[in-house]
Design goal:
globular, 7-stranded mixed sheet, 25 strands, single chain, 30% helix
């Protein structure tokens, strides 16, 4: 039997050194942030479909909290998770884990979350067994059982402290009834079958109807268990108050979290940092702006940290898109054009414009960041991924072979001047800077390029995936893992959630689908890495957690190398992200020696060279760690 014990967390640091000025004030017990939430119509639970803003960081919890990018694990609602050799796992909940209304958090609550939400982990679970109010057993599907580390991380993905069984009993029971009455999956089936059941069309309709009612339910209290409770809310301000009954209340040194409803104007955000109106902001700023903020505010610091994502251009593959060539619909991104665009850009220049702290990449879009590809691919096939250079002569040769010609410094095809468009998220400084630099590079090469700015991610993404507003290119995350460090996170982002939608890849229709289950899924076909043939991507995305190490390597080789050879986009750099932190107010920040030398830390730790710093820096980004630094006592007001 293997048992994962609660990590003993040491304080991240002591009283700050001379790198920052110490300050005590009436604001010293309040942690000020920018966040955004629905100004009108926000409902009182996580799964309502509304944006709950800071409540997602500080109020709604998982059984186990992991830190994205480092995979450090903290037990929160669960006291322990024991994995056994008989395909079962025992989850023991904290005796003192309670809801904000005072009710104990129970096994019915934890199991109820998965019955109603049916998240990714439920595809690997056969059933639950309740032992008592604070203990339950997970029976894993023997044919799809993940390894023990992945089991724990899968339980850490879902915010299970959001479904109070007593509050949502009607909907949870109905979801379980629909599930129990649906057909069982065939033996050895590895497709989508939560709790080993396959949904019929009637089941899906009934489940969706029930889930819609569940989302619309609006309790008279915000349903959560976490360290901070909703205290006061308006359209522009949200106050969270320390949960005095929380199991780790003694570690919570900040009494309040004050959030201002975020804005998309980067200059306004930078101004608030400069004036010290907020104590935390994730991400980077342009280098000159970042240094100006640090110089202007003696209490502000900026830490850099590893980010498992790459930024670059994604090419729109919508074959119906009008190119403007002779006024007719013509496929723009031919093999030669996609390859030519790999050579047009000086990627180091683009990287420096977007993020000078990033790591330049000379590879195409490949479904995962270079660091993850190097980790999960075989060395032989990783080295087969194309590596390009800045070679405008080569680009011109490829375009001319495709019927393009250059007149008076501008590129034409069939007598029509080529004009392209780059669409980008204007609220992301790295993507904004890279987009402007890419436009300049194209103009210098002789291709006119128009920039289209989305005000924020939702605005950009909503437009980028719409056929009615098809753009030639999007400057965005080409490759990104939003989950724990396992290839599935990158593949979900690329082939399911974001990248494929931005590429507008064609989908199977009723007329060309091999069977009904393929309808509406992407019909992307790639070459196998060993040259033995081709495969449909949709056929290999499920069941990856149960693969052996050798099988996983082969699967990753196929998916990454196969997509890279398509040249569907250009990677410019692997990102390094960061966190602005008010070091004149927040105690417990790591590497005080570096902070005393320069509050703009350029050091980016990695797990191989300094694991302690790698983990400590990862926790400083609340998008990665949520409330972990508060729960462990890592963050505290200076002087308290």
């Amino acid at each position: 039997m293997k048992k994962i014990k609660f990590l003993a967390i040491a304080s991240l640091g002591a009283i700050l050194l001379s790198g920052c000025k110490s300050a005590l004030s009436t604001e010293s017990l309040t942690f000020n942030i920018l966040q955004n939430w629905d100004k009108v119509g926000m409902k009182n639970h996580l799964n309502s479909g509304s944006n709950i803003g800071p409540l997602n960081w500080f109020s709604v919890e998982a059984l186990v909290q992991y830190v994205r990018s480092t995979d450090e694990v903290f037990f929160v609602l669960a006291e322990s998770v024991e994995h056994h050799t008989d395909h079962t796992t025992t989850v023991t909940l904290r005796e003192d884990a309670n809801w904000h209304n005072g009710d104990p958090f129970t096994s019915d609550d934890a199991m109820g979350y998965y019955y109603i939400n049916q998240g990714q982990v439920t595809n690997y679970i056969d059933s639950f067994e309740k032992i008592d109010d604070k203990t339950f057993t997970i029976n894993w599907k023997e044919a799809m059982e993940p390894n023990d580390k992945v089991k724990t991380l899968l339980l850490a993905v879902d915010r299970s402290g959001s479904v109070h069984y007593g509050e949502f009993k009607e909907y949870v029971d109905k979801a379980k009834e629909i599930l129990d009455n649906s057909p069982e999956a065939p033996i050895g089936y590895t497709g989508w079958a939560p709790f080993n059941h396959l949904a019929t069309n009637e089941d899906e309709t009934a489940y969706l109807e029930n889930y819609t009612k569940f989302k619309a339910h609006n309790p008279d209290w915000f349903v959560a268990t976490g360290p901070y409770k909703l205290f006061r809310q308006s359209e522009t301000e949200m106050i969270l108050k320390k949960n005095e009954d929380y199991w780790a209340a003694d570690n919570l040194k900040f009494e309040y979290i004050k959030a201002t409803n975020s804005m998309s104007d980067l200059n306004q955000i930078y101004s608030m940092l400069q004036m010290g109106k907020i104590d935390y902001q994730d991400g980077l700023a342009p280098q000159n702006t970042l240094e100006h903020i640090i110089e202007s505010n003696p209490n502000m610091a900026h830490y850099k940290m590893f980010d498992p994502g790459a930024i670059g251009l994604v090419f729109n593959q919508n074959t119906k898109k009008k190119t403007g060539i002779n006024g007719e619909s013509e496929y723009f991104w031919t093999d030669n054009v996609r390859l030519a665009f790999q050579y047009i850009f000086d990627r180091e220049t683009i990287k420096n414009a977007g993020n000078p702290y990033g790591i330049t990449s000379y590879r195409p879009l490949m479904s995962m960041a270079p660091s993850e590809a190097a980790t999960y691919m075989s060395e032989e096939n990783f080295n087969k991924i194309p590596v390009y250079s800045h070679d405008e002569a080569k680009a011109a040769q490829l375009l001319e072979a495709d019927g393009w010609n250059k007149v008076d410094g501008q590129w034409y095809k069939n007598g029509t001047k080529i004009t392209t468009t780059i669409h980008y998220d204007g609220s992301h400084p790295g993507q904004s800077g890279a987009a402007i630099a890419a436009q300049a590079a194209l103009a210098n090469f002789g291709i006119e390029c128009v920039l289209k700015r989305g005000s924020d991610f939702n605005s950009w993404f909503g437009t980028a995936q719409s056929e009615a507003f098809a753009f030639d290119m999007s400057m965005c995350w080409t490759d990104l893992n939003m989950s724990f460090s396992y290839p599935t996170g990158s593949f979900i982002y690329c082939y399911t959630d974001i990248t494929a939608k931005v590429m507008q890849l064609p989908k199977f229709t009723k007329e060309d689908a091999p069977s009904e289950e393929y309808i509406g899924k992407y019909k992307l076909e790639l070459d196998k890495a060993d040259g033995s043939g081709t495969f449909r991507v949709v056929d290999v995305l499920d069941g990856m957690y149960c693969l052996s190490d050798a099988e996983l390597t082969e699967r990753v080789d196929d998916l990454v190398l196969g997509l890279a050879k398509k040249n569907y986009g250009v990677q410019f750099y692997q990102n390094v992200t960061g966190s602005f932190l008010n070091c004149g107010k927040i105690g417990g920040l790591p590497r005080q020696d570096l902070l005393a030398e320069n509050r703009n830390l350029t050091y980016v730790p990695n797990s191989e060279e300094n694991l302690e710093d790698f983990l400590a820096f990862g926790k400083l980004n609340l998008h990665y760690s949520y409330a972990t630094s508060f729960i462990t006592g890592g963050f505290y007001p200076i002087g308290k």
